[in-house]
């Protein structure tokens, strides 16, 4: 959910939401199984939107296979990526809870499959087990605390730190072992998407990536990246 090319050089973008922050994903396993017992199968091609901001929130999805970016767009058409969502995670649940329109858009980054539950199925489940709301309240409180901590940390990150952290977070989601301590980001990633994830101007991302390549920290092939020196990226985040 991000604005990309015209954000400030100070790295003011929000960090990617960690997988654990998805609300329904943090319910006890038995509750999640109960919620998705009657889920419908759904598939989306790369680039296809599951929903867009402003849509009526009539259900939520669990990613079975694939990767989805959660985005928001400014009035000027600038995109900001707030989260990457992978297999086992749930998206679109906020609208089930507050009955408000979608606050962001969800777009498949590659061909993906899902399980979908309707609002009615969710409400039927909570009637049968009202204890779900107690768990949701605890998860919402934890999510707010995590967001506060993330915003505080982001305020002090340099542009280089923002880009390095984005690469590390991508490694957590889509990274594959390439041997000798290297990690392949096994997904085509555009400069625009990297800028939207990091929350910095695209031209600044290009400068940072160029420097990382020259130093041998990363290697780029087309729109894929190999992270060759993870410790160097971690040091950029810590400085």
Overview of the structural elements:
The chain has 239 residues and is of the alpha+beta class. 39% of the residues lie in helices and 25% in strands. The protein is built from eight helices and twelve strands. It has helices spanning 29-35, 94-98, 119-128, 131-155, 159-174, 191-198, 202-214, 230-238, and strands at 40-44, 49-51, 59-65, 67-73, 79-86, 90-91, 105-108, 112-118, 175-179, 182-185, 218-221, 224-227. It has a four-stranded antiparallel sheet with strand order 1-8-3-6. Strands 2-7-4-5 form a four-stranded antiparallel sheet. A hairpin with a 5-residue loop joins strand 4 and strand 5. Helix 5 crosses helix 6, helix 5 (159-174) packs across helix 8 (230-238) and helix 6 crosses helix 7 (202-214). The protein is elongated, with a radius of gyration of 18 Å. The two termini are 26 Å apart. The relative contact order is 0.18.
Core attributes:
239 residues, alpha+beta, 4-stranded antiparallel sheet, elongated, disordered N terminus
List the helices and strands and how they pair.
Elements: H1 29-35, E1 40-44, E2 49-51, E3 59-65, E4 67-73, E5 79-86, E6 90-91, H2 94-98, E7 105-108, E8 112-118, H3 119-128, H4 131-155, H5 159-174, E9 175-179, E10 182-185, H6 191-198, H7 202-214, E11 218-221, E12 224-227, H8 230-238
Antiparallel strand pairs: 1-8, 2-7, 3-6, 3-8, 4-5, 4-7, 9-10, 10-12, 11-12
Helix pairs in contact: 5-6, 5-8, 6-7
């Amino acid at each position: 959910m991000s604005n990309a090319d015209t954000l400030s050089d100070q790295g003011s973008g929000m960090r990617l939401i960690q997988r654990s922050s998805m609300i329904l994903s943090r319910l006890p396993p038995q509750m999640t199984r109960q919620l998705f017992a009657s889920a419908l199968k759904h598939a989306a091609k790369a680039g296809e939107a599951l929903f867009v901001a402003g849509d009526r929130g009539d259900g939520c999805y669990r990613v079975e296979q694939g990767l989805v970016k959660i985005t928001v767009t400014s009035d000027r058409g600038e995109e900001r990526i707030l989260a990457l969502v992978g297999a086992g995670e749930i998206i679109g649940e906020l609208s089930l809870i507050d009955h408000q329109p979608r606050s962001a858009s969800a777009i498949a980054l590659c061909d993906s499959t899902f399980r979908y539950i309707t609002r009615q199925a969710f409400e039927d489940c909570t009637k049968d087990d009202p204890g779900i709301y107690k768990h949701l309240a605890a998860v919402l409180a934890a999510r707010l605390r995590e967001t506060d901590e993330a915003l505080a940390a982001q305020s002090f990150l340099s542009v280089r730190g923002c880009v390095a952290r984005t690469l590390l977070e991508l490694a957590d989601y889509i990274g594959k072992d390439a041997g000798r301590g290297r990690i392949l980001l096994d997904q085509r990633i555009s400069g625009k998407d990297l800028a939207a994830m990091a929350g910095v101007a695209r031209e600044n991302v290009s400068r940072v990536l160029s420097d990382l390549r020259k130093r041998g920290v990363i290697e780029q092939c087309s729109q894929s990246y190999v992270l060759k020196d993870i410790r160097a990226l971690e040091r950029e985040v810590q400085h």
